[in-house]
Amino acid sequence: MKRSRSLSLLLMGSLALGPAGCGGDKVEEGMHAFATVDECIVSGLFSEEECAEYYTKALAQTPRFSAREECERAFGESCSEESSQNVVAVSGGNGTVVRQGSGASWMPMMTGFMLGRFMGGGGMMQNSQGLYRSPEERKQPQGGARVFRTRSGDLVRADSGGRVANPSPGIVQSMRHDAKPVMGRSGIGARGGFFGGSGSAS
Amino acid sequence: MRRVPLAPRPEWREIAENNGFFFHHINGEIYWDESAYYALSLKEIEDGLEDPAQELADMCRELVADAVNSEEILELLAIPPLFRDIARDSWRRNEPSLYGRFDFAYDGHGPAKLYEYNADTPTALYEAAYFQWLWLEDRIRDGGLPPHADQFNSIQERLIETFASLRVSGLTHFAAMKGSEEDRATVEYLLDCARQAGIDGRQTYMEDIVTDSLGLFMDPDGQAIHRLFKLYPWEFMWRDAFAPLLPGCDTTFIEPAWKMILSNKGILPLLWERHPGHPNLLPAWFHDMAKSPPVNDYVVKPLLSREGANIHVFRGHRQVFVSDGEYGGEGYIGQALCPPPFVDGQGPVCGVWIVGGKSCGLGIREDTSPITSNLSRFIPHCILE
Fold first, then answer.
1. Alpha carbon distances (Å) from B15 to A11, B12, B113, B190, B356
2. Using CB atoms within 10 A as the burial measure, which of A79, A130, A197, B13 is most buried?
C-alpha cells in the first residue's frame, strides 16, 4: 500500500483555533478589579511588580478638581484634599508625575483599580485605571460582587473573584489608551521586524 | 495516467469545513476540485515520480554541501554575505529540514521533468497530505472507486515521524504571515502534526514577533521563541529589519537557513551543470540577456519568485507570454521550455513531497494557463493499476 492506513487530526476542524488560541500557560485577555495591591497579587493573574506598577499608575491618574463641590458632584462624599492622600509621584514609566501642593487639590478616594489585558497592535497589551465609589452606588450588591465607577463615570461590575465580565466599549477604549505590551522575556526591544516582501508562499 | 471524471461527493464542502479546510475556494474560484481525478499505475508512481524525486532530493543535498563552501556559488545565487554565514552555519550544525515539494511535468509518457523545487515554503500540503487521503477513503467506501484503489501518500505519517525525530523539548512556535487563510491553515495543520508527535506548539504570526531588550525573538505574549517553524521565505528575511539580529539569535528555524540555497532557482542550472543530460532535468542556465540561450524555446524565471510570478516564455527566441510580478531584481535563470502535458485539455503539474528527506506523496495541481500559479486547482489522484 502506498498510502497510510489511518490518519487523524487532533484539533484542526474540531474547534475554532485562533492564532493565539493555543499553548498551556498563555497570558489571557480579561479585565479585573482589585481593591488593593495585595488582592491583585493574591489573584495570581499578575506579578507583584505589575500589581504595584499598575496600582501606582492608576492612582497617579486620579482626577483632580479645583473645588470640593465639583468633585462631590462627580464622586460623592469620598472627596478629600490631595495632601490627605498619599499620592506618590511616578517617575519613569510613561513619565506621569503628580505635582503635590499645586492649585488642583480636590480628588476622590480611589477605592480600587482595574487591571486589564487585551490584544492590541503587535500583541498582548495591558493597562490599568482607578476605580471610585460613585454618589448613587453606596450600597454594594450581595455575594461578594462589587460595583465601581471609573474616572469618567462608567459603571464597572466585578464578580466576587474580581473579574469584570462585560466591560462597556467606553471602558475598553479608555484601557486601550496608553496601554503597554505585556512583558515576558526581559523587556521589549523591537517589534514588527518581520514584515515580508511583496509576495506570499508558493 | 488518465484524467477521469467523477461526480463529487454531494456534501464535500461540509466535509472540508468540518476538517478545517476553508480555502476550498480561493478568490471565488474553486481550488479543491473533485469533479475528476488522476488515475496512475503503480509503475508510473514509483518509477516515474517517487524514485526520481528521491534521487533529486539526494542530488540537492550534495549540491548544498558544496555550495556552502563556495563563495562563487553563493554569489551566483545572489545570497547576501550576512546570510551566507547563516546558511553555512545551519548546514554545519546539521539543522534538520522538514519538507519540500518538487514540481514535475509528467503524464506517464517519458520521464518526469523538474520545473522547480519549492524547498523553503511549499504549500498545498494539507490538501495533498490529509484531505486527498480522506477523499480516497470516502470514495472507496461509497463505491466511487474500487476497493483496491490506492494513493501515493504517506505525507502526514512522515511529517509526524519527522517531527518526532527532532526530539525537542520546550515550546515550538509556528508562524505564517497575516492575510492568507491558506497559509494560516497550512501552519495550523503542521502544528496539528507536531502535536501528534508530542511537540508543544503554539501558533503566532511573523508580523507579531518581537524582540526582547537583548534582541532575542519572542512572541507577543513574551514567550521566548527557541524554535520557529516559519511559512515565510528566507529571502524575505534578507530584507527585514530583524535581519541583523539573525546571526546572534537563539532561535532554530524550520526550514533551516541552508534551504535558502535550494529554494533559489539558481539550483536548476547548477544541477544541470553537475548532471548534464539527467532524464529528470531540463537544460538550464544562468540567463544573460546579452547572450543567446542554448535552445530556441525557453522560459526565463527570476532566481527568487513565487506563485509563477515574473515568468517570461520565449518561442523561437520571441517572447510569447509574460506573467506579472515584482520579482527579478536578483537575476534570472533560463530553462528549456517544457509545457505541462495536456491531459484532456488540462495541464497537470505533479508535486512530489519530500518529508524528512524521503519521497512520500503526490499532489496534482492543474491550470489552463501555461504557468502553475496560485490560481491552479487541486485534483486528487489514485493508483488503479
1. 15, 5, 35, 20, 29
2. A130
**In this structure, are B319 and B346 located in the same domain?**
no
Domain shared by B69 and B181, yes or no: yes
Number of domain units in chain B:
2
Q: Which residues in chain A are contacts of B209 at CB distance < 8 A?
A: 191, 193-194
Same domain, B167 and B40: yes
Which triple of cell numbers denotes residue B337? 521550455
Q: Are B220 and A124 within 8 A, CB to CB?
A: yes
Same domain, B123 and B240: yes
Comparing alpha-carbon positions, the chain A residue that sits nearest to B42 is A2
The residue among B298, B314, B336 that closes a domain is B336
Q: Which domain holds residue B330?
A: 283-336
Residues A94-147 have pLDDT tens digits of 444 444 445 557 888 898 999 998 877 656 788 999 998 866 666 666 667 788
Same domain, yes or no: B235 and B363: yes
Residue B346 and residue B311 in one domain: no
Q: How far is residue B117's CA from residue B353's CA, in Å, rounded to a whole number?
A: 10
The interface predicted TM-score of the complex, written ipTM, equals: 0.88
Helices (H), B69-217: 71-76, 81-92, 125-126, 132-141, 155-165, 181-196
The reply to whether residue A197 touches residue B213, judged by beta carbons under 8 angstroms, is no
Other C-beta atoms closer than 10 Å to the C-beta of B370 total 17
B positions 159-178 inside 8 Å of A (CB)? 171, 176-177
The reported pTM is 0.72
Question: What pLDDT does B35 receive?
Answer: 97
Q: What is the pLDDT of residues B305-359, one digit of tens each?
A: 776 788 899 999 999 988 887 777 789 999 999 988 887 778 899 999 999 999 9
CB B362 within 8 A of CB B370: no
Q: Do B118 and B222 lie in a common domain? A: yes
Q: Determine, for residues A200 and B219 on separate chains, whether the beta-carbon distance falls below 8 Å.
A: no
- Give residue A126's identity as a one-letter amino acid code: Q
| pLDDT tens-place string over residues B250-266 | 999 999 999 999 999 99
- Look at residue B277 and tell me if it is in a domain: no
Residue A40 pLDDT exceeds 70: yes
Is the Cβ pair B206, A187 closer than 8 Å? no
Decide if B313 touches A, using CB distance below 8 A: no
C-alpha cell at B235: 529571502
- The x, y and z cell numbers of residue A59, run together, are 492612582
- The average confidence (pLDDT) of chain A is 75
Instruction: Say yes or no for a CB contact (<8 Å) between A192 and B205.
Output: no
Q: How far is Cα B266 from Cα B274, in angstroms, rounded to an integer?
A: 13
Question: Does any CB of chain A come closer than 8 Å to the CB of residue B21?
Answer: yes
Instruction: Please state, in angstroms and as integers, the Cα–Cα distance from residue B167 to each residue in B117, B161, B197, following that order.
Output: 27, 10, 9
Cβ-Cβ contacts under 8 Å, A199 against chain B: 233, 305-307, 309, 325-327
Q: Is A103 on the interface with B (CB under 8 A)?
A: no
CA-based nearest residue to B263, from B23, B63, B43: B63
CA-CA distance, B362 to B100, in Å (whole number)?
A: 12
Q: Are residues B253 and B289 in the same domain?
A: no
Higher model confidence: residue A121 or residue B30? B30
C-alpha to C-alpha distances, B135 to A93, B232, B273, B379, B380, nearest whole angstrom: 57, 29, 41, 11, 8
